[in-house]
Amino acid sequence: MNPQATFESLLKPHQDVAYRYAFRLTGNADAAMDLLQDAVLLAYKAIESFQPDSNFRAWFLRILTNRFYRVSQQNKRHQTESLDDAPDLYLYDQAARLGHTMEGDNPAAAILEKMDQETVRDAIDRLSDDYRTVAIMHYLTAMPYEDIAVALDIPIGTVRSRLHRARKQLQVSLWQLAVDRGLISEEINS
Q1: 22-38 pLDDT, tens per residue?
Q2: Using alpha carbons only, what angle is made at residue 160 by residues 159 and 166, rounded to the nearest 5 degrees?
Q3: Is 43 helix (H, G, I), strand (E, B) or coil?
Q4: Which of 39-48, 77-86, 112-121, 143-152 has the lowest mean pLDDT?
Q5: How far apart are the C-alpha atoms of 125 and 176, rounded to whole Å?
Q6: Alpha-carbon distance 120 to 69, whole Å?
Q7: Please, what are the domains in the chain?
Q8: Among 133, 106, 118, which residue's Cα sits nearest to residue 180?
Q9: Rounded to an integer, what distance in angstroms lies between the CA atom of residue 58 and that of residue 37?
Q10: What is the pLDDT of residue 116?
Q11: Cα gap 66→153, rounded to integer Å
Q12: Alpha carbon distance 62, 139 (integer Å)
């Protein structure tokens, strides 16, 4: 089998996941296609560095992620302020503080049920690049921590840390979007 056919056979089963991942990173179909094409070209040129007994998807997503970081740094898109100071249960605390007890013992779940996919996507898009990358890989492509670590070439502890911070930032973003979109009121219920 020729090298091009070998590369194509390795890539084909992962193209859909790679495109969805690129789309979530860029938030734009055209930019996602450009990013994916760049990553395919870079991977093809570097195929000799791929170890046949290793995880091709993780290897390829690392190339795609690195390309995204390079392009992102060049374009320096607007980032939201750091939300690392938010408590772990921010969404729950905010909902409970305002008396949003609704059904069950989890007011945060009741608020999340009011949100559509677009609101959740918008909250993910507000994450900083490092956190957004890990969150997308974990939540949207269902990659285990180990594969994310390989794909991003970072220690598994860093994956856990970034995912923890991403969850905190998501809670704050989801709350802000719910208030902004009138899904909840910040007036305290009696």
Answers
A1: 999 888 888 899 999 99
A2: 90
A3: helix
A4: 77-86
A5: 13
A6: 23
A7: 3-75 (1.10.1740.10), 90-180 (1.10.10.10)
A8: 118
A9: 17
A10: 78
A11: 10
A12: 17
